[in-house]
Amino acid sequence: MTVSRRTFLLAAGSATLAACTHAAHRAATRRPPVRAPRATTTSPTAPETTTPPPGSAARFIRSGPTSANVVALTFHGSGDIALATELLDAARAGGAALTIFAVGRWLDENPDVARRVLDAGHELANHTYTHPALGGLGASRVADEIVRCRDALARHAGGPGRWFRPSGIEVPTQLMLTEAGRAGYPTVVGYDVDPRDYQDPGAPQIAARVRAGLHPGAIVSLHTGHAGTVAALPTILDAVAAAGLHTVTVHQLLDR
After folding, report:
1. What's the average pLDDT block by block, 10 residues per block, for the chain (256 residues)?
2. Number of compact structural domains in the chain
3. What is the pLDDT of residue 164?
4. pTM of the model
5. Which of 48, 55, 208, 237 sits most deeply, having the most CB atoms within 10 A of its CB?
């Protein structure tokens, strides 16, 4: 049978189209080759930090690490300046390091005390400006108390100090942690040994209560404006030494 040129070309074109369609179908349905996963290297996980970024809410601690035989004697700085002077003298005689959480108004009323504390090798920190019951105040008042004490520390001590401790409350609220962080304090420092010396139970009782709570990493809460506390300090330092411990500032305790 004779096939015309036109018929031949039409048939050839149809065959080619069918072949291309079949090839395209095979390409579309063909599964891609399985490749081995690319080798990756995983860098070690960075250690988790406990210091919040600047401006974020502060963390709260009430004791230090137990890896070293040290304790921090902390004092709420307020009250009779003569008793504070006696306390500093007793600390010098006993070779003790102290941290004074100072009330800002107390610093303003006694402008020489900050330098005397620092020149003796002790540490100053923030304990609000007027020492109110901070738990009953709103955000603006809490912020004002922290900032005004911070500024008093800057005026008298040359810097704001590293730590904040709220007044009138043992464990800070989230509001206090937030405002402390905003004021530039990444850490709010509490305590885990409280001899309640502000109740004036007498020097022997204060010393006995401190002795009973001592342990490596302890943070002890005391007060500068109470005669019984001043009288108890030599006995407290003897108890610290008898327990195989020695005193450091909060900075030295937490940055070990």
Report:
1. 39 39 39 36 32 79 96 98 98 98 98 97 98 97 98 98 98 98 98 98 98 98 98 98 98 91
2. 1
3. 98
4. 0.79
5. 237
Pair of tokens at residue 70: 């040290």
Got the DSSP string for 126-172?
E--SS---GGGS-HHHHHHHHHHHHHHHHHHHSS--S-B--SS-SS-
**For position 53, what pLDDT does the model report?**
64
Query: Could you tell me if 109 and 143 are in contact, meaning their C-beta atoms sit under 8 angstroms apart?
Result: no
Q: How far apart are CA 118 and CA 92, in angstroms?
A: 12
Tokens for 21?
């369609």
Q: Which ranges in the chain belong to alpha helices (H)?
A: 5-29, 81-94, 104-109, 113-119, 139-157, 174-182, 203-213, 227-242, 250-254
pLDDT confidence of residue 88: 98
Tell me if 98 is assigned to some domain.
Answer: yes
CA distance 219 to 252: 12
Q: Which two tokens stand for residue 194?
A: 């409280």
Write out the residue range of the structural domain in which residue 75 sits: 59-254
Query: CB neighbours (10 Å) of residue 62?
Result: 15
Helix (H, G, I), strand (E, B) or coil at 69: coil
Does residue 84 lie in a domain region? yes
Six token digits for residue 69: 């035989």
On the CB side of 149, CA atoms within 13 Å amount to: 34
The CATH number of whichever domain residue 118 belongs to comes to 3.20.20.370
pLDDT for 30: 41
